[in-house]
Amino acid sequence: MKLVLQNIEKDYGENQVLKKLSFTFERGKIYGLLGRNGAGKTTLFNCISGDLKFENGKVMMLEEGHIEEDIDYSKVGYVFSDPVLPEFLTGQEFLKFYIDINKDKIKDLLSIDEYFDIIKINEGDRYRLIKGYSHGMKNKLQMVCLLITKPPIILLDEPLTSFDVIVALEIKNLLKKMKSEHIIIISTHILQLATDLCDEIVILNNGILKEIDPTVIKGLEFEEKIMELLKGETNG
């Protein structure tokens, strides 16, 4: 399975954020997406997920030799940096609702309590309104939705910044276990996370994606290489 971006163009007025952006992501890898604030990382994710229309280009899936030119956006899972959840429900009610409406997509279903156990939300908090959850707890709920439905394409926008050390490590290990059946793209500004977790690093720089030589990622010159690539970028 491959996710193929072909000549994506996205403008905000006179500001062209994505400039004939093309790239191919492959199943079995975790990609780290790096770029300065305003570079268009969230815009790119929104184009891939179908949440944002773009002026030109195509987002396609290639699977077993078949190209799906009109991508089925239900195959894309997206964890937002600012969680979007129904705050009038309790955590337990939300997970039950989410499982009920996605039953046809779920394989190897666990119990709701088992999912809560994975993301370390204690029993008392499971029955509280999401409105009263911390930012980190809301992010945990978003993350567990991906663990439930396991969509082929997973987009994570700054996914681990609000987790404590233990949960962050557990989520990283889960992502590593999941990657063989998924395309996982993580937008982050934390270089250490990118080098620890990701198989490949891509830079969004002046509206296009550039792949970093994999041999550089684990090297001492990695940070210098990233700085060099981003120096000339005009902040959005």
Q: Could you characterize the architecture of this molecule?
A:
By secondary structure, this protein is an alpha/beta fold. Helices cover 34% and strands 27% of the residues. The chain has 9 helices and 10 strands. The strands form 2 sheets. It has a 6-stranded mixed beta sheet, with helices on both faces. Strands 2-1-4-5 form a 4-stranded antiparallel beta sheet, with helices on one face. Helix 2 (91-101) packs parallel to helix 5 (135-149). The two termini are 32 Å apart.
The main sheet comes to: 6 strands, mixed
Q: What is the CA–CA distance across the termini? A: 32 Å
Radius of gyration: 18 Å
Instruction: Give the topology string: H per helix, E per strand.
Output: EEEHEEEHHHHEHEHEEHH
Widest beta sheet: strand line-up: 6-7-8-3-9-10
Enumerate how many helices there are, as a single number. 9
Which stretches are low in confidence, meaning pLDDT under 50 for 5 or more residues running? none
Number of strands: 10
What is the approximate shape?
Answer: globular
Mean pLDDT: 87
Helix percent band: 25-40%
Oligomer: single chain
Range of strand content: 25-35%
